[in-house]
Amino acid sequence: YNPKNIFNMDETGLLFRALPTSTYVSLEEGSRKKIRGTKVLRAKDRVTLVLCVNATGTCKVAPLIVGTSKNPHCFRDSPCPIPYVNQRNAWVDREVYKGWWLDIFLPAIRKFTKEPVALIMDNCSGHDPTLTDPTGQVEIIFLPPNCTSVYQPLDQGIISTLKTLY
């Protein structure tokens, strides 16, 4: 496969109300002993982000947000600018995955290229291995169990950078 036709999909949880657990103090601000802090208060409100990009970074599939609320208050006055679905635990189950596959991923691929495409992803139970591309354009490659953090491209800094910038 041409690198522009190799895609990786991964999910990550985003604790959208959590405050940072650490901070940086400049030398000008004094010694660490003078700086006061508080104990970490962890907000547990979360959504799951489904991210997908090709190896060259030239095609970024629209991210999917999976939340728990059917009609979130934050979207009352203006619609969500990216796809949003709800699931009881804000997880990617087979129904959410199928919706992502049919409504987001395949249309994005068809618009991007007519060439064969490889999609690399982990073997999470929510990823239905029986779901395939009816045209045969996309081949799904499942990574072996317990190795995704080593071999999955999105886990090599892309997801952590996104969370840091958020």
Structural features, described:
A hairpin with a 5-residue loop joins strand 2 (47-54) and strand 3. The protein starts with 5 loop residues before the first strand and ends with a helix. The chain contains 3 helices and 6 strands; from the N terminus they run E-E-E-E-H-E-E-H-H. The chain has one domain (3-165). Helix content is 19%, strand content 23%. It is α/β, with parallel strands linked by helices and 166 residues long. The mean pLDDT is 80.
Q: Estimate the helix proportion, in percent.
A: 10-25%
Q: How many helices in DSSP terms?
A: 3
Q: How many E strands? A: 6
Quaternary: single chain
Total of domains:
1
SSE order, as H and E? EEEEHEEHH
Largest sheet: 6 strands, mixed
Order of strands across the widest beta sheet? 4-3-2-1-5-6
Rg over CA atoms, rounded to whole Å, is 19 Å
Ends distance? 33 Å
Mean pLDDT: 80
Q: Globular, elongated, flat, extended or rod-shaped: what is the shape?
A: globular
* Unreliable stretches covering 5 or more consecutive residues: none
- The amount of beta strand, in percent, is 15-25%
Estimated structural class:
alpha/beta
